[in-house]
Please model this.
Amino acid sequence: MSDCTPPETIELFLFDFCPFAQRVQMSLIQSQLPYKATVLTPGQMPDDFSTISPLGNVPVLRVNNSDTVFESAVINDYIAQISPISIEPKDELQTAQMRAWSEYINTCFGALMGVLQATDEDSFQQANQALINKFQPLSAVLSSQNGGFFYGEQFTTIDSTYAPLFLRMHTLNQLFQPFSLEALPSNIKGWMDTLVNCEPLKKSIVGDFPTIYRSFIARMATDKYIDSQL
Ligand SMILES: N[C@@H](CCC(=O)N[C@@H](CS)C(=O)NCC(=O)O)C(=O)O
Model:
């Protein structure tokens, strides 16, 4: 959180299906910083995109129409620094712990990809269970027991980090009921319910998300077990 003057312009480049871009967009929405969202399509990128995104990926944030920042976790830290509204814990140690648990999202996304990549019913069931198991350590540190954000009342960047994952799990459960969320720890379920219904997440969705996610599955897990069942 900052008292300094925010940049004159902020532009976020994103793909509609990208959870890392959605993570950034949620932080921008919660911070109430004015920004422009530019939605790109893979394969139809602007000619000068390499001058905006050195690795060619999204999300990337362009500030004052010149400097850019990539890597969603780093962008979120930057947004937290310039935000007029606090979106990180007040305590430095808690902020460091939050960043550590935010990094853990990559393990969870890996487990979700394992679910999408399963080739038959048995390996799908195992992958579903492996994903659920990833939430045990998080459940042990989650302060909210019955819903609420990760730190209770205050929305912080760990909420924008996990909300895109929860949206995808929730959507997959709607598209394909055998993908079960029943065995999730109850406090994780409460956190998930809060996040999938919160305003920053709803406002960060570009288009009809079930359709977007169905196309993502068709592209990233073509003819795998779930794709073949849908
Ligand atoms: N670690 C990066 C991951 C970004 C990422 O994987 N972006 C994907 C879309 S979800 C992308 O742009 N892929 C295209 C490419 O790498 O060329 C972050 O958190 O920002």
